[in-house]
Amino acid sequence: MSSQELQEWLTSPYSRALLAQASDGDDKISALSFVASLLVQSFEASEDAIPLYFYCGLNTDSYGDSLPGATGMVQNIIAQLLWPERHAFHLGFINNKHIQALENGDLEALCDLFEGLTHQLPSSTTLFLVVDSISFYETRDRLEDTYYVMNRMLELVDKASFVFKLLITSPGTSAYMTQGSHHEQVYWLPNVDPEEDDEFDHNIGAFRNQAEVQLKTSQMGLMRSDSEWMTND
Predict the structure, then answer these.
(1) Which stretch of 63-67, 69-73, 107-111, 175-179 has the lowest confidence by average pLDDT?
(2) Alpha helical stretches, state H, the chain
(3) Residue 209 predicted with pLDDT over 90
(4) What's the distance, Cα to Cα, between the start and end of the chain in Å?
(5) Staple partner for 207: which of 34, 51, 142, 169, CB 3.0–4.6 Å?
(6) Is the separation of the CB atoms in 110 and 75 below 8 Å?
(7) Among candidates 113, 78, 72, 119, which has minimal Cα distance to 95?
(8) Considering the entire predicted model, what is its pTM?
(9) Sheet holding 126-132: strands in order across?
(10) How do strand 49-55 and strand 16-22 relate by DSSP bridges?
(11) CB-neighbour burial class of residue 162 (10 A; exposed 0-12, middle 13-18, buried 19+)
């Protein structure tokens, strides 16, 4: 977590996106997941920050998710943003047509909703969004939707009236990161040699043993809240 790129992303007073990629790896819980978790914990400790996060590796078909993929991702981060007492959002900008689209899981409508909600944040707000292990959502049936959501988030970085910090990680080579027009934004993380860093390797091992239970439980709770936000308005 001491790289210059990450430090600049964290400390900059302006909106920024950072796409962090390791050279090789296919673990659903990786070293990057560990770093992402530490970052989220640090954001949660700040009164001036709103941390949102999504671990793609923990939300795949193998876990029996009802809505895996980009649609579930956006629904999940919206549920986090609407978490009680975080901010007094108004939903008057949503008409009946939009409600129907949202109920049908329309991806464009979901992204519009997320953007409409963030437009209500005070300009002094710093919103962090961490999307971990994006490469797990680059399968043939998910690729188009994943690209759409990530492009919408990157566009929001450029036009947000608040400070929006977007971190997208991949434990291995990501087609989105290496083939898109934003490839110059990609930071390639150096490999960590376990023989040279026993303490780091030990921490990663302990994190892997606990993360699938802890993070998955958190994500499932947020998914349950997603069905309640509109009813409670």
Answers:
(1) 63-67
(2) 4-11, 31-44, 70-81, 96-103, 107-118, 143-159, 175-179, 198-226
(3) no
(4) 40
(5) 34
(6) yes
(7) 113
(8) 0.78
(9) 49-55, 126-132, 163-170, 16-22, 186-189
(10) unpaired
(11) middle
